[in-house]
Amino acid sequence: HSVVRNALFCLEAKPNEKKNHVYTKALMAYTFALAGKEEKRKALLGSLEKEAVKKDGSVHWQRPGKEPEADLPYYRYRAPSAEVEMTAYVLLAHLTAQPAPSQEELSFASLIAKWISGQQNPNGGFSSTQVSCFPPG
């Protein structure tokens, strides 16, 4: 489709990906994964890995300049929905490698999945910018 081809051309021509916001990079990495543009996908994932928050055996991404979460007893911090969402896009970009993700990517993806699963609410759902907080199903 010419519209999709033109949109991909526009994204590929996007100058200086280093200045892009982490959320934009996550979306673009997944877009290029779906389009089979492996070099672009890998470049964006490499850039994203440098910005990753690696903590407690898990990996996630957060907004630049965000205050660190409180470490209080009996309090379980849940990230804002945009951070869950962008982390999920990075996970999808890792798992959508073509022809298939490498063992290294699968190992890294499991660290991302660990963080995402820790963000579930007591009903099994997630806060989201797109859907309500009701559990799936």
Automatic annotation (TrEMBL):
What transmembrane ranges does the database entry give?
Answer: none
Q: What is the recorded name of this protein? A: PZP protein
Which Pfam families does the record associate with it?
A: TED_complement
Give the gene symbol. Pzp
Could you name the Gene Ontology cellular component terms for this entry? Answer: extracellular space
Residue span(s) of domain Alpha-macroglobulin-like TED? 2-130
